[in-house]
Write a structure and sequence with these properties.
single chain; mainly alpha
C-alpha cells in the first residue's frame, strides 16, 4: 500500500508539472536550455543572472542541451523523480541500527513519500533544478560505494555542483577518513579547474565577481533565501556590519554543527551526521534557495526526547516545516513574521546546533520513559472502543506541537472551506429548498427575528458583536483551560471538536447553501456586513476572505454547542454551567438575527457535534475514567482526574529494573493504572 502511495505521488508530481503552460513550468531549466537559454546561445553564462549554477554545472549541462530541448518536461521530470526514489532508498538503508523488520519494510516508501511531498523537491521539480543530484551523490558516496577514493570523488563532484557541500570533506577529515577528504577536495578542485580552463570568463564571474554565486538569481534578501545571510538582510542589516556579523555567526554554526556531526558519526548515526552537516551548509551559505534545503528533512532521523510521549515531537515539526509553507504554520500576525519568514532556517539551525539528539548508548534510545494511560470505565457495548490502541493519556501533550497542529488543521480547514463551493446558482437553489422546508415545518422565523432585531440599535449591535467575536474566543479558551487543568479531558474534547469540524467540511462540500442575507428577493438585512450588491456574483471583497455559501451546517452554532456541552460536563461551579448553557442560546439567536444562517443550519451544526461525540465514544470508549484504586498518601501531590478522582503525581520512570514495591507508597504509582 505504501508503494502504491509512492506511485500515486510520483504521477501527481509529474501531472502538476506537465499541466502547467510551457512558459510557467521548469522555468529555471527553460532559461538554461531553451531557445534563448544561456546554454544555447554564445556568450557568458551569467550575462542575465538567470543561471545560478557553478561553471562546472554549465560545462556538464551544455552537451545535454539539444537532448533536453527535445524532451524538455517529461524526461527531465521523470529523471528527477527517479533521483528522488534513489535518494529515499539510500536514506532508508542508512538508518542507524538496530532496525526492526517493520521499520526496514516501511522505511523506503515512507522516505520517498516524504521527499516527494517536501517543499525542496516540489520546488526543484517545478523549476527544473538539479539540486537533488548533489544530495544523492553525497549519500551514495557515504553509504553505497566502497573505498575511500570513490566516496571522495563523488563528494567532490557534488561540491563542484553546490560549493557548500565541500563541508562534507571536513566531516570526513574530522571522523578519520582523511584519504576520502583529500580525494574529495582534489576532485572539487579538478572539476572547478576544468570549468575554469573551458570557461575562464564565466568562472571569474561566478567565483570572484558574484562571490561563489551569491549575487545570482533572486535578491539575497528575498524569502526564498533561507540562509543566515538572507535572514540578516531581511532584518534590515546591510553593508560591512552585516557581512562581519554573518561571518561570525557562520563560523560559530560551523564549529558547533560539525562538532555535533562528528559526535553522531562516531556514535554510529552517520545519516544524522550527514543531516546535521547539510543543515550547517544551508545556514552558512550566502544563498540557500528552497530547492537546496533538502538536508533539513533528513534531520527527521534524529531521536530527541527521553519520554515516549515526546519522541514524535521533533519528527513531526521537521515534516511540517519541510512540507508546508510558513503561512500555514504560523498566523498572519506581525509579531511572528520573523519566525514565519525564516522557519526553514530556524529548523536547520535547530538541527545543527540545538536539538538534543540522543546517543545510541543512552538507556532511552530503545526504551524511552513509557507513557501513562488512564483506565476508562467499561463501555456498554463490546465493540467500544473500536480502536483499543487509542487510549487516554494522563499527561498533557507537547504545547509546541499541539499549537502547531491546531494551526495547520485550522489553515487546512479554511482552505477547504474556501474551495468548497459549487457556484451561486446552486447555493441559492439550496437556499430556496431550506426555506421551503422551514415554511412547511412552520419554523421560518428568520425574517421576523432579523427585522425585529435590526430595528433596535443596541440589540443589533450586541448580536453583531457576539456573532463576530465569540466564535473563536470561547472554544480556544476552553481548550486552554482543559490543557492546563484537565489534560486527560483535553485530548478527548479536542478530538470531539476535530471530528465535528471534519464532518462540517463534508457538508460544506456536498451541500453549498446561501445564507438568508444572500438570498435575493427575500428582504433580509445583513446587519454584520452591510448591504450586499446582488448584481455582483462575488458580493464584493467578502468572498475572497471566506466561502459565503458554507452555511450548512452552522459551525457557529456547532462550536458553541460543543462549548456548552463541555462546560456543563466538566465545570465545577453551577454559575459556570449556566454560562455554558447560555452561550449556544445566544449564538443561535445571533446567527438568526443577523441573517447569517437558517434555523436548519443550527440543526445541522448540532448534528455534526453529536456525531463528533459519538465517533470519539465509539473509537476511544467512554470519557469517564475509573475511580482511584488507592487513597493518596498524606502530602502526596494530587491532580483531579476526569471523573473527580485524584491521580497521584508520578515520577519519571527510567528504563531498567522495576522499582521496589515500597516505591509506590511514596506517590510514584498512578492511581487507576494496573
Amino acid at each position: 500500500m505504501l508503494w502504491l502511495v509512492v506511485a500515486a505521488l510520483a504521477v501527481r508530481q509529474m501531472a502538476v508539472v506537465l499541466r502547467q503552460p510551457p512558459g510557467e513550468r521548469l522555468t529555471d531549466l527553460e532559461t538554461w536550455i531553451g531557445d534563448n537559454g544561456v546554454l544555447h546561445v554564445t556568450g557568458s553564462l551569467y550575462d542575465t543572472d538567470r543561471f545560478t549554477g557553478t561553471p562546472f554545472a554549465g560545462l556538464v549541462l551544455k552537451p545535454l542541451t539539444r537532448t533536453a530541448e527535445q524532451s524538455l518536461g517529461v524526461a527531465w521530470t521523470f529523471g528527477s523523480l527517479l533521483l528522488v526514489a534513489a535518494l529515499g532508498v539510500v536514506a532508508a538503508r542508512a538508518l542507524p541500527g538496530p532496525v526492526g523488520r517493520r521499520t526496514a519494510l516501511f522505511a523506503a516508501p515512507v522516505a520517498i513519500s516524504l521527499l516527494m511531498l517536501s517543499l525542496p523537491v516540489r520546488n526543484a521539480l517545478h523549476l527544473g533544478q538539479v539540486s537533488i543530484l548533489p544530495v544523492l551523490l553525497v549519500l551514495v558516496g557515504l553509504f553505497v560505494v566502497r573505498g575511500e577514493r570513490k566516496a571522495g570523488v563523488l563528494i567532490g563532484v557534488a561540491a563542484a555542483l553546490q560549493p557548500t557541500v565541500l563541508l562534507f570533506a571536513a566531516l570526513l577529515w574530522l571522523t578519520g577518513r582523511r584519504r576520502a577528504a583529500l580525494t574529495g577536495g582534489a576532485a572539487f578542485a579538478a572539476c572547478t579547474a576544468l570549468a575554469w580552463v573551458a570557461m575562464p570568463h564565466d568562472s571569474w564571474t561566478y567565483w570572484v565577481h558574484h562571490v561563489a554565486g551569491s549575487g545570482l538569481g533572486d535578491q539575497a534578501d528575498s524569502l526564498a533565501n533561507q540562509s543566515l545571510h538572507g535572514a540578516l538582510l531581511r532584518l534590515g542589516l546591510e553593508g560591512p556590519p552585516e557581512i562581519v556579523l554573518f561571518l561570525v555567526l557562520a563560523a560559530a554554526v560551523c564549529f558547533v554543527g560539525l562538532r555535533r556531526a562528528v559526535r553522531y558519526a562516531r556514535d554510529g548515526q552517520l545519516l544524522l551526521a550527514v543531516a546535521v552537516t547539510g543543515c550547517v551548509a544551508v545556514a552558512v551559505s550566502p544563498t540557500a534557495w528552497q530547492h537546496q534545503l533538502l538536508w533539513v528533512l533528513f534531520a527527521v532521523v534524529g531521536r530527541a526526547g527521553r519520554r515516549a510521549s515526546d519522541r514524535l515531537v521533533w519528527p513531526a515539526v521537521v515534516v511540517l516545516v519541510t512540507t508546508l509553507p510558513g503561512t500555514m504554520l504560523l498566523p498572519n500576525v506581525g509579531a511572528v513574521f520573523p519566525v514565519r519568514d525564516n522557519v526553514l532556517l530556524i529548523a536547520a539551525l535547530g538541527a545543527a546546533c540545538a536539538a538534543p539528539f540522543l546517543p545510541r548508548t543512552s538507556p532511552y534510545w530503545q526504551r524511552p520513559v513509557p507513557t501513562d494511560y488512564a483506565v476508562p470505565v467499561p463501555a456498554r457495548w463490546s465493540r467500544v472502543p473500536l480502536l483499543p490502541l487509542w487510549r487516554r493519556v494522563l499527561s498533557r501533550p507537547n504545547l509546541l506541537l499541539e499549537l502547531l497542529l491546531i494551526r495547520v488543521v485550522y489553515s487546512a480547514y479554511a482552505h477547504v472551506r474556501l474551495a468548497a463551493t459549487a457556484g451561486r446558482a446552486t447555493a441559492e437553489r439550496h437556499g430556496r429548498q431550506i426555506h421551503s422546508i422551514e415554511q412547511w415545518l412552520h419554523i421560518d422565523v428568520e425574517h421576523r427575528v432579523n427585522h425585529a432585531v435590526a430595528g433596535v440599535g443596541r440589540l443589533r449591535d450586541f448580536f453583531d458583536y457576539y456573532y463576530s467575536t465569540f466564535h473563536f474566543i470561547v472554544p480556544l479558551a476552553i481548550l486552554a483551560v482543559l490543557y492546563v487543568r484537565r489534560p486527560a479531558d483535553y485530548r478527548w474534547a479536542r478530538s470531539t471538536l476535530g471530528f465535528a469540524t471534519l464532518l462540517a467540511l463534508v457538508g460544506f462540500w456536498l451541500y453549498p447553501l446561501a445564507p438568508p442575507r444572500l438570498m435575493p428577493g427575500l428582504g433580509f438585512i445583513d446587519t454584520v456586513h452591510g448591504v450586499q450588491d446582488f448584481a455582483k456574483p462575488d458580493y464584493g471583497a467578502l468572498t475572497a476572505m471566506t466561502n459565503q455559501y458554507a452555511a450548512m451546517p452552522s459551525l457557529h452554532f456547532g462550536w458553541s454547542l460543543w462549548c456548552g456541552v463541555v462546560i456543563v460536563m466538566l465545570a465545577p461551579k453551577v454559575w459556570m454551567k449556566v454560562l455554558g448553557v447560555l452561550h449556544p442560546l445566544f449564538t443561535v439567536s445571533a446567527i438568526v438575527a443577523t441573517a447569517n444562517h437558517w434555523v436548519l443550519d443550527a440543526v445541522g451544526g448540532a448534528t455534526v457535534v453529536a456525531l463528533g461525540f459519538l465517533i470519539a465514544y465509539v473509537l476511544a470508549g467512554p470519557r469517564r475514567l475509573r475511580a482511584s484504586e488507592k487513597e493518596p498518601e498524606a502530602g502526596a501531590p494530587e491532580e483531579p482526574g476526569a471523573d473527580g478522582g485524584a491521580l497521584r503525581g508520578k515520577a519519571a520512570r527510567v528504563p531498567g529494573p522495576a522499582p521496589a514495591p515500597a516505591a509506590e507508597a511514596d506517590g510514584e504509582a498512578v492511581a487507576g493504572k494496573p
